[in-house]
Design goal:
Blueprint: H1 3-42, H2 47-56, H3 64-78, H4 85-98, H5 108-118, H6 120-134
């Protein structure tokens, strides 16, 4: 293995770790927004109840797409085999594809659009991820 290849792999691993952290922050902002909406209707919930809701409740189900992406990144980073350029690019592409809001879309895209319209913290977290994705090589 050449030193350039080793440096590229190190860069890709660091990039994915940073992307993972940015996605987790975005997920947290989206979860906070959903929690507030849920609590306005159903009353306050504990952190334990929130975890159960996140896993089981339909209102929170759309957030599973980001959770799944973070799990994919974690699995890639902890895999025994080296990260291939194709796998790296696929994760970047999957992230870009997922984080496309749509006013007229369905499922995740529409809920994501609504979250971006209603919460400045979500907008800032989205912008940070989008800017970071633009720096991918």
């Amino acid at each position: 293995m050449t030193s350039d290849t080793l440096l590229q792999r190190i860069h890709q691993h660091q990039y994915l770790r940073d992307l993972r952290n940015k996605l987790l922050y975005l997920h947290r902002m989206l979860l906070d927004r959903e929690r507030i909406a849920y609590e306005q209707v159903s009353g306050r919930v504990t952190n334990g109840e929130l975890l159960r809701l996140l896993i089981e409740h339909e209102q929170f189900a759309w957030l599973h797409r980001i959770s799944s992406l973070v799990v994919q990144i974690d699995e890639t980073l902890s895999a025994d085999e080296p990260l291939s350029s194709e796998d790296f690019q696929a994760l970047i592409s999957d992230t870009r594809s997922l984080l496309v809001p749509s006013e007229v879309g369905s499922g995740f895209a529409r809920k994501y659009y609504n979250a971006l319209q209603g919460e400045p913290d979500v907008v800032l977290a989205h912008a940070e991820v989008a800017q970071f994705l633009a720096s991918a090589k």
